[in-house]
Design goal:
Rossmann fold; 7-stranded parallel beta sheet; alpha/beta; globular
């Protein structure tokens, strides 16, 4: 995690104090914050991250709310939000937030602005490109700091295209309206500096974390396939590369069975590719499944992505001790640590074929590597550390804003 620079001596000089409340047992802690998380789709790792933050912040006595898209997620999102409701002292509101730039964005801005005016939060935390844009464009009612976690977002959006260039131009403008950059990996922090420029506010790296329950081993199902691939069915996840690798293995006399878990716009296209490559008997598409249920459907996880931030699916699988073949993209090397030498280049079908073949020939070695990655995740990617690190960064940014009044 990024280093937290102490502020108490400077604040004391300015006669600024950290407000505290007291537990029934007499121990003191910082006063409750009002935190509003703003994001677009209630899907994938970003949503998982926000759920963890909401639960952890509420457990520590803070008042938390959500502003979230109403057009995605379906019944599954409704169920999760209903279960999350007891943690949402500030409630949640849903409005249409299109993925691309759209006239409906004006209505979303109006709705979130009204929400902020009513709640007067201490922290506006925007997640992803669209959520963070809303958090930073709207008028700031009260003393809220604006925090931003990219989750990849516009930093990996359509490189080399007009759309990608436009969104990164917006990022450069909004850089000046940000009080706190909470990067989820060193990779994303470096990517921001390379593509956008130097952040014009406080920067902290607070990595995604997993809880104790996720370190329990996964019981593999009797009908498990050789591999399982988990992710949205869209180009960045490179499932097309996996299908080609499976076809090559079959043609070489070593057919490999696979379960593909996920939903997305490329569903029909990928199914057609598998059929065209003669893999109807080897590949099954099962739609969405919770992560641990998905891991039980295969004996090793393959993540052939072209781009990632710090993917939860890799963290979750690593915590459970699942052998993983993954590409050297985004923050994945940070998860693997010394075992990053086993990662493969993206879009390299031959490397993927050889990695899968080696793991199937020597599963013992694959499990040995998995145990070493698991130990690293246990030590460095704690859910508690993630929540506490974010809260500490909020407080430091709030203190800096207050201190600025005296300088």
């Amino acid at each position: 995690m990024g280093q937290m620079r102490p502020l108490r001596s400077a604040l004391a000089a300015a006669d600024v104090s950290f407000a505290t409340t007291t537990h029934p047992q007499g121990a003191s802690r910082p006063a409750s914050l009002k935190i509003l998380h703003i994001l677009r789709a209630p899907l994938g790792g970003l949503f998982r991250h926000v759920i963890d933050l909401v639960q952890g912040q509420a457990q520590r006595g803070h008042q938390v709310g959500l502003f979230i898209d109403s057009t995605t997620g379906g019944a599954r999102a409704e169920t999760i939000l209903a279960e999350l409701a007891p943690c949402l002292a500030l409630g949640f509101e849903r409005a249409a937030i299109p993925r691309e730039l759209n006239p409906r964005d004006v209505y979303a801005l109006h709705r979130v602005s009204r929400r902020i005016a009513a709640l007067k939060p201490d922290v506006l935390h925007g997640h992803g490109a669209k959520g963070a844009a809303l958090a930073r464009i709207v008028p700031n009612y009260g003393r809220a700091i604006r925090a931003y976690t990219p989750h990849g977002g516009s930093l990996v959006y359509c490189p080399g295209t007009i759309s990608g260039s436009f969104y990164r131009s917006v990022e450069r403008i909004l850089n000046w309206r940000t009080d706190l950059f909470l990067f989820e990996s060193s990779y994303v922090a470096d990517l921001f500096r390379a593509k956008i420029g130097t952040p014009r506010a406080m920067v902290r790296i607070v990595r995604n974390g997993v809880g104790k329950a996720e370190f329990e081993p996964v019981a593999i199902q009797p009908d498990a396939t050789d591999i399982v691939c988990v992710g949205e069915l869209r180009p960045v996840k490179a499932i097309d590369v996996l299908i080609e690798a499976l076809a090559i293995l079959k043609s070489s006399g070593q057919p490999v069975t696979a379960t593909i878990v996920g939903e997305g716009p490329d569903d029909s296209k990928l199914k057609a590719q598998a059929a065209r490559r003669g893999l109807a008997d080897e590949v099954r598409f099962v739609g969405f499944r919770p992560a641990r249920e998905a891991f039980a459907m295969g004996r090793m996880l393959v993540i052939p992505s072209r781009a990632e931030s710090l993917p939860y699916v890799v963290l979750e699988a690593a915590a459970a001790g699942v052998p993983i073949i993954a590409t050297e993209v985004g923050g994945v090397p940070e998860i693997f640590g010394p075992q990053a030498v086993h990662l493969i280049p993206p879009d390299d079908i031959a490397a993927l074929v050889e990695a899968m073949r080696a793991a199937l020939v020597d599963p013992g070695e694959a499990h040995r590597i998995a145990e070493q990655i698991r130990a690293r995740v246990r030590a460095d990617f704690s859910l508690s550390t993630m929540v506490e690190g974010g809260l500490a960064a909020y407080r430091e940014a709030l203190a800096l804003r207050k201190l600025a009044q005296f300088t």
